[in-house]
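Notes from hallway chat w/ T.B., transcribed later so I don't forget. T.B. wanted the structure written out for a chain they're using in a teaching module, and asked if we could keep both sequence and structure tokens in one place. Agreed to drop them here.
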Amino acid sequence: MDPKKTAVVMIEFQNDFVKPGGAQHDAVRDVMESTGMLSNSLKLAKEARALGATIMLTPITFAQGYPETSRHPYGILKEIVDTKAFRKGTWGAEIIEELKPLPEDIIIEGKRGLDCFATTNLDLFSAVAKSKTSS
């Protein structure tokens, strides 16, 4: 595998999930601790960057009032609305400081549900990448 042709997709590494005090942290804390998720992920990102792989950060964010969701969200989206998590412009929606995006990283914007790529700007990055390889 060529690291320079490899991307590591890092999903929802945001304060509301990852940090104590985050609106959804209690829901994921035990699994994060039992798997060493954060330390393993940070190590992966550091080593991948050093090898020249692309880091793609995929945050989930919502406007105030959650107009991007259905009128009656369910499952995890209902929990997000009920706890007022991942609101644009808030501490909870920010990518954690330990994974602060570097200039060469790609931030996939527009994630509003469980799928990391539907409704996002990934198509734009794909078009740019294709134009660079055809030059």
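Follow-up for T.B.: The first strand starts at residue 7 and ends at 11. Might be a good example for the class.
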